[in-house]
Write a structure and sequence with these properties.
Elements lengths: L2 H5 L15 E11 L8 E11 L3 E5 L6 H9 L8 E9 L2 E2 L5 H7 L4 E4 L3 H4 L6 H9 L7 H14 L5 H5 L8 H13 L5 E5 L7 H18 L2 E6 L2 H7 L2 E6 L2 E7 H6 L4 H8 L16 E14 L8 E14 L3 E5 L6 H8 L7 E6 L2 E2 L4 H11 L3 E4 L13 H11 L4 H14 L16 H13 L5 E5 L7 H18 L2 E6 L2 H7 L2 E6 L2 E7 H6 L4 H8 L16
Parallel strand pairs: 3-8, 3-9, 6-7, 7-8, 13-18, 13-19, 16-17, 17-18
Antiparallel strand pairs: 1-2, 1-4, 4-5, 9-10, 11-12, 11-14, 14-15, 19-20
Helix pairs in contact: 5-6, 5-8, 8-9, 15-16, 15-17, 16-17
Length: about 575
């Protein structure tokens, strides 16, 4: 266990006047009202805590707990008048931000309080270069000569450990990796040296090595600048890695808060205990043995992506798959792990025909899957019911204009299943994944992220597949919902005999559910083996680096009874 977790002591619940000399931000009795007809009257109710100078406070809770709503209230970004502060105060450096005129709030945003958002592509302007966007922030304070401005931007990007800052500032966001885009967001947030940094789930969608780099960067910048940091997350592994203090929220209310060691190792509230119990660890391994029948086999698959060149630009080639081979047995959960860009999703999409391989072979039940062309299209349509996929984003994978029942029955109807049978099968699958039959006649927007992912699984299972591909199917979910979906996948495997190809960048999740693992890097499989054996004694340096990057790896999760 890290020294910080061992030596930290418990802190009592924070009151309005506690640590007044150190409090940079003080939230007292904050209630944020929701519009009439919402599932509850307040998004945040009677919330009280402080953020100290030079420390990191993690706000933890599931989706809908009020974490991000509090951050938006601090920044003055609530969608008023529909969502508004109904009661309480938010004091920043002694000044109450509630009710402050927009002009004064605008002078505080960026200069005194900055925010890093969860999804950098939605926060960065795709039509402006990185340098132009950082320059916009710098110009809030002063206008510099162009050469001096570029030099300052380069230094700022360099401090974020971005390679070739001169090239980066002339690049558009889409040309950068996810980790690089997140570093640009941090650079913009820190450009004016704010005293408070709000980080809203900044590492959720990143692979473990990039996540570790971003967490280290935030901690390093916080120490160098003496900032207070409000870090919003649902991952207690991240909490163990970065936090000094923890505030746990449930349905808008603070249920527990204190020093990181006390909350992680001796949680008192049942909700905190439930969240910590749901955190997967590297010690949880699938124990059942799959059957020996091989359903799916990939032999020496190659895939190269080419981007067109021009008069002044050389064509670019990316070898996404390089001599990849694997076998998937009936009733087995096979994990594909690796960093972003390692080829995991390309392999998954190649198997279902979305990215046909350039060379090599893919066999399903002894039949070779064809590539493109009319014959390949007919074959993929015929075999679609045997191989199904669940995508990463439960919000983007469902048509918002189509009711849930219509989405689930679409596949069976296209394969000749009678309407009555397709409807009955859809309702059966909804019940199987833990949703009420009334979901059949509702739209996707009426469901939470975890419920939408269950709908995606029900849609795939309605085809009665023999192979299910789960492409980062739980990466965007809260730990408690993630645990439920992983349990559901295991139940599907046991009751229906489905083989699952499980694509993930989270090694803790892979440890929990996968029988075997394939570790991918730069389009190649660099190591494979039984999950428990591979984690206990990895042969490759790359595998060891992935394991070392798991957030909170030094934290020994306590054994807890959730219902105490």
């Amino acid at each position: 266990m890290s020294a910080r977790l061992e030596t930290a002591t418990a802190a009592p619940a924070t009151g309005a006047g506690e640590a007044a000399s150190q409090a940079l931000l003080s939230v007292h009795g904050l209630s944020i009202a929701l519009p009439p007809g919402s599932d509850r009257p307040f998004a945040v109710e009677q919330s009280t805590y402080t953020i100290e100078r030079g420390s990191i406070t993690c706000i933890v809770g599931e989706s809908g707990s009020g974490k991000s709503m509090t951050a938006n209230a601090i920044m003055g970004l609530l969608p008023q008048p529909y969502v508004r502060v109904a009661e309480g105060t938010i004091h920043f450096d002694g000044k109450n931000l509630v009710g402050l005129p927009e002009q004064q709030l605008r002078s505080i945003r960026g200069a005194e309080i900055s925010m890093i958002f969860q999804e950098p592509m939605s926060a960065l302007n795709p039509l402006m270069t990185v340098g132009q966007q950082v320059a916009e922030v710098l110009r809030k304070r002063e206008r510099l000569p162009e050469r001096e401005e570029r030099a300052r931007i380069a230094r700022l990007l360099e401090s974020m450990d971005l390679p070739d800052p001169e090239r980066i500032q002339d690049s558009y966001p889409f040309r950068l990796s996810g980790g690089q885009r997140q570093r640009v967001m941090i650079a913009m947030a820190l450009a004016l040296s704010p005293r408070l940094l709000i980080a809203d789930e900044p590492t959720t969608a990143l692979d473990v090595t990039t996540q570790k780099q971003i967490l280290s960067l935030i901690r390093e910048q916080q120490r160098e600048r003496g900032m207070g940091v409000m870090f919003i997350t649902h991952d207690f592994g991240v909490v163990a890695e970065i936090a000094d203090k923890v505030v746990v929220m449930e349905k808008g209310r603070i249920v527990e808060q204190g020093a990181v060691a006390e909350i992680l190792n001796h949680p008192r509230h049942p909700y905190t205990r439930k969240l910590i119990s749901a955190v997967p660890t590297l010690n949880d391994h699938a124990s059942t043995t799959p059957e020996s029948d091989v359903l799916l086999e990939v032999r020496s698959a190659d895939k190269v992506f080419r981007s067109g060149g021009g008069w002044f630009r050389k064509a670019r080639e990316v070898h996404a798959l390089n001599q990849v081979s694997l076998t998937l047995r009936r009733g087995e959960i096979l994990g594909l792990v690796g960093e972003s860009g390692s080829g995991k999703s390309t392999l998954a999409r190649s198997i279902i025909g979305l990215n046909p391989i350039d060379s090599g072979e893919i066999h399903f039940l002894g039949e070779q899957l064809l590539g493109g062309g009319r014959r390949g299209h007919k074959q993929r349509k015929r075999l679609a019911r045997h191989i199904q996929i669940v995508f990463q984003d439960p919000y983007a994978s469902l048509n918002p204009r189509r009711k849930v029942g219509a989405a689930i029955t679409l596949g069976p109807l296209q394969h000749g299943v009678p309407v009555a049978e397709a409807n009955a099968r859809a309702k059966e699958m909804l019940s199987f994944v833990g949703l009420d039959a009334s979901a059949f006649d509702r739209y996707p927007h009426e469901f939470s992220g975890g419920q939408r992912q269950r709908i995606g699984i029900a849609r795939a299972l309605a085809m009665r597949p023999e192979v299910l591909i789960a492409d980062e199917a739980v990466s965007a979910l809260d730990v408690s919902v993630q645990k439920q979906v992983l349990g559901l996948l295991e139940e599907i495997r046991q009751r229906m005999g489905v083989a699952i190809l499980f694509v993930t960048h989270d090694l803790r999740v892979a440890a929990t559910i996968c029988h075997r693992l394939l570790v991918m890097r730069h389009g190649q499989i660099v190591e494979e083996g039984e999950t428990s054996t591979l984690f206990a004694a990895p042969r490759e340096d790359y595998t060891r680096a992935l394991l070392d990057a798991v957030p909170g790896i030094d934290w020994q999760k306590p054994e807890l009874e959730e219902n105490l």
